[in-house]
Design a protein that fits this description.
Layout (H helix, E strand, L loop, with lengths): L7 H10 L16 H14 L2 H14 L1 H16 L4 H12 L1 H6 L2 H14 L6 H11 L4 H7 L4 H8 L6 H12 L16 H6 L8 H10 L10 H9 L6 H4 L6 E2 L2 E2 H21 L1 H10 L5 H17 L8 H16 L3 H13 L1 H15 L2
Antiparallel strand pairs: 1-2
Length: 370
């Protein structure tokens, strides 16, 4: 625990003072699905689009305040830390102090100012990529099985040892903090000792704001918060962590695509079809006119994957991202016999519905992990 608490009220007031009040009077004209709003808000933050992010956030605040505060605490660890570690501490503190928010401007102003501040930081997925590696890197399969049997003291020795491989240290951190989810590839469920884990983060080793984020957030997120200190340390030392470079998926390939990537497209499309086609007759008519019925799911899945790479430049979860995008376009034309103009039309139609498809993608990933 910190001996000298941080003056969070003063820090949050500084965000409020910098907030563009013009955003307060803008909302989306309709009340879209809360999942779409949350996805749109997070993607706008990734792109640094302040106005879009704030409008989506304030609309979500009206639709589902609980989900807004939950997603706000997810965006930082997933997309911008460790650069924004000070701001993440502010966000976690604000989320934990509802009565203070009510007396100091209210949620609308505070949420808007925090989202605007998040947009000013560069996109960085170090913590997210480390979390993915700690569960899916082929090299940690044996360590994940061996480490789950170790004592807390033994795990702490690995976690704090800079000579250990970063992914093994991440596995130790996850086990120390506790792994409750059963939707995992290599990690095993383990009861953690959060108090002991927190005691390892001392001011002589880590900055106060980082310790504060871990103290507040450790009970809210299972993976990113447990790995926050490692991400910060690794980043400070000039290191990078990418799933693309360090985590080759050990599966057969379809051309240059890993087979499970290709299957993901089909699964994504099957779920997305149910929601997207029902909302957009243009997509339905286009698919029925130009694509054989058996290929509807793959067509939509491949297109969504290509759009995600084109528009967002994030989630480099598969090897050879540039090659994948090129092949997605080539495969689309070759398999579905579409001329360029038709392909472009379909891409634009799907682009307009991308938030729905993005939500479907998350559902597919969850299903595949079960």
């Amino acid at each position: 625990m910190l001996n000298h608490p941080i003056d969070f009220p003063a820090r949050i007031h500084s965000h409020i003072q910098a907030f563009n009040n013009d955003y307060l009077y803008q909302r989306l004209p309709a009340e879209p699905d809360k999942w779409v709003l949350a996805s749109a808000m997070q993607k706008a933050v990734r792109r640094g689009r302040e106005k879009d992010a704030v409008i989506a956030a304030l609309t979500l605040l009206q639709v589902d305040p609980k989900k807004l505060w939950h997603r706000l605490q997810v965006i930082g660890p997933e997309d911008v830390t460790p650069e924004a570690i000070d701001l993440m501490a502010d966000i976690f503190w604000a989320a934990s102090n509802r009565s203070w928010r009510k007396k100091n401007g209210g949620d609308v102003v505070i949420v808007g100012s925090l989202i605007q501040a998040l947009c000013k930081y560069p996109h960085n997925r170090v913590a997210n990529d480390l979390a993915v590696n700690a569960n899916r890197h082929p090299a940690i399969r044996e360590a994940a099985t061996a480490f789950v049997r170790l004592t807390d003291q033994e795990l702490a020795g690995i976690y704090l040892d800079a000579q250990h491989p970063i992914v093994e240290r991440a596995v130790a951190a996850r086990y120390l903090a506790g792994v409750q989810s059963y939707k995992l590839r290599f990690l095993h469920p383990r009861n953690g000792n959060k108090d002991f884990f927190l005691s390892l983060h001392t001011p002589d080793r880590f900055p106060p704001h980082l310790i504060q984020v871990i103290e507040i957030g450790i009970g809210r997120q299972e993976d990113h918060i447990a790995l926050m200190a490692l991400s910060y340390e690794h980043r400070q030392n000039g290191g990078t962590i990418t799933y693309q470079n360090e985590c080759e998926i050990e599966t057969p390939k379809f051309g240059s695509w890993h087979s499970d990537t290709y299957d993901l497209h089909t699964g994504l499309g099957m779920i997305a079809l149910k929601s997207v086609v029902s909302r957009d007759n243009l997509i339905s008519r286009f698919l029925n006119t130009h694509v054989p019925d058996v290929n509807h799911a793959k067509a939509l899945g491949v297109t969504a994957f290509a759009l995600e790479g084109q528009n967002l430049k994030q989630r480099e979860m598969y090897t050879g991202m540039d090659d994948l995008l090129k092949e997605a376009k080539q495969a689309y034309v070759a398999r579905y016999k579409l001329v360029g103009a038709m392909k472009n039309d379909f891409f634009e139609i799907v682009r307009e519905n991308f938030d729905i498809i993005h939500h479907a993608r998350e559902r597919v990933l969850n299903l595949r992990s079960q």
